[in-house]
Amino acid sequence: MLVLIVLIILTPAAFAADATAGGGTNWIAISAGFSMAIASGACGYAQAKATAAACEGMARNPGATAAIRFALILGLVLIESMALYTFAIIFAKVS
């Protein structure tokens, strides 16, 4: 336990010494990775909810299948564009 406490106390000093030598952390790349992960997770969740709702709607009203399918495809395209816009912004920032 004492070793763990010493490591926790000395770790910031070790990283601070490295950052002054010019080898700082690339926070843009790290935050870009987190933002793409969040955008991808949100897209996956939203697409799953949209597909589930469309399937339920088609099951309840088979006569409206064409309209529901069109709305589903349009919604999936707009949801997927969120991930693509996030990727484009990340690519512009990191490059």
Write structural notes for this entry:
With 95 residues, the protein is mainly alpha-helical. The chain contains three helices and no strands. It has helices at residues 2-20, 27-60, 65-94. Helix 2 runs antiparallel to helix 3. The radius of gyration is 23 Å and the shape is elongated.
The best one-word shape is elongated
Structural class: mainly alpha
Oligomerization category of the chains in this entry? single chain
Residues in helices, as a percent range: over 70%
Mean pLDDT: 84
Largest sheet: none
Characteristic key phrases:
mainly alpha; 0% strand; elongated
What order do the helices and strands come in, and which of them pair?
Elements: H1 2-20, H2 27-60, H3 65-94
Helix pairs in contact: 2-3
Brief overview:
The chain has three helices and no strands. The chain is mostly helical and 95 residues long.
